[in-house]
């Protein structure tokens, strides 16, 4: 007999044999308590079960074996709960971008109303009246760079309308883009940023009948894109041909005037956000492969996005869904 094994005998009809099972030495038979301690030590937290061994020789013996209690658990029992949790996480919206944009808009509003220079309020009112043609010819020549900035801001409103309708519409109920576009004609990026905070892709489906109605027929027209790009080139050329003294004067205006300072900051914000909305519109039109070369050009203020609006494929060239209900603008 081996010191590390015990002999378990089995009664068989024919032939008789014995099976050696490795285990710790059995305790003395007359000490029941010692036997229980050894059995607990062998199992060590494992549950004991019995199974009958049968062979072609009609085994009559019964062996006791230990099974890990963890093996009896079904590991798939918790899967439905895990899957539900993962599905919930997948449907939750990431609000990080919206929070950052809202913080940016709040900071900009504080800067515009509190921190911007405001040394010449009366002159600002005079400049505004001159730019709106509310004052006649009084012999004062307006700064050419300032005039160019004023007109390019009006062109930016048309450009953003062409980028946000229809591909920039929000799928969130109750959030329509057109009120923000109307306000952007007066407030520029300061009026569009709240929409950027609330915007949620993808855009609602578009009916084919909408392509021939206002305002999409105007915004999708190649003639509109040509006029927009030509006007932008003319305005930029008018400012570029100004001499150094005019640019120096404009820089001084930005340091003193709230009106000019805020307007130039508005132009910078619109130029910064334009490449993203160009890419969003390009993705909606499925033109990312052929038109990816134009994306680096969109960092050029106004002219880059205007060039994209001229070259982009029309909505009629991409698949357009025909839902039973009309999507929100």
UniProtKB/TrEMBL annotation:
It is found in: Cell membrane. Coiled coil: none annotated. The keyword Thylakoid does not apply. Its main location: membrane. It is a multi-pass membrane protein. The chain crosses the membrane at residues 95-113, 145-165, 177-197, 223-247, 259-279, 291-311. Residues 276-312 form the Cardiolipin synthase N-terminal domain. One of its GO terms (cellular component) is plasma membrane. Pfam families: PLDc_N. InterPro entries: CLS_N. Keywords: Cell membrane, Membrane, Transmembrane, Transmembrane helix. The keyword Transmembrane applies. This is Cardiolipin synthase N-terminal domain-containing protein. It comes from Coptis chinensis.
């Amino acid at each position: 007999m081996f010191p590390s094994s015990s002999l378990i005998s089995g009664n068989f009809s024919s032939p008789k044999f014995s099976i050696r099972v490795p285990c710790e030495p059995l305790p003395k038979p007359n000490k029941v308590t010692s036997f229980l301690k050894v059995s607990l030590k062998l199992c060590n937290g494992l549950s004991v079960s019995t199974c009958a061994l049968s062979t072609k020789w009609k085994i009559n013996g019964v062996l006791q074996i230990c099974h890990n209690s963890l093996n009896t658990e079904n590991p798939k029992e918790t899967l439905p709960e895990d899957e539900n949790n993962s599905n919930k996480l997948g449907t939750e919206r990431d609000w990080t971008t919206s929070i950052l944009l809202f913080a940016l808009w709040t900071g900009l509003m504080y800067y515009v109303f509190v921190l911007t220079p405001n040394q010449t309020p009366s002159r600002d009112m005079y400049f505004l009246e001159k730019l709106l043609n509310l004052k006649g010819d009084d012999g004062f020549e307006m700064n050419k760079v300032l005039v160019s900035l004023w007109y390019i801001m009006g062109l930016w409103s048309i450009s953003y309308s062409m980028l946000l309708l229809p591909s920039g519409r929000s799928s969130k109920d109750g959030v329509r883009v057109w009120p923000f576009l109307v306000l952007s004609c007066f407030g520029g990026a300061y009026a569009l940023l709240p929409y950027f905070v609330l915007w949620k892709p993808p855009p609602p489906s578009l009916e084919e009948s909408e392509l021939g109605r206002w305002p999409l027929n105007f915004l999708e027209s190649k003639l509109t894109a040509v006029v927009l790009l030509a006007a932008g080139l003319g305005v930029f050329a008018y400012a570029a041909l100004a001499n150094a003294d005019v640019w120096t004067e404009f820089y001084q205006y930005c340091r003193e005037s709230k009106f000019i300072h805020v307007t130039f900051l508005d132009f910078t914000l619109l130029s910064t956000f334009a490449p993203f909305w160009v890419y969003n519109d390009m993705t909606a039109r499925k033109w990312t492969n052929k038109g990816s070369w134009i994306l680096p050009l969109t960092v050029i203020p106004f002219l880059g996005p205007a060039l994209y609006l001229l070259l982009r494929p029309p909505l009629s060239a991409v698949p357009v869904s025909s839902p039973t209900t009309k999507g929100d603008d």
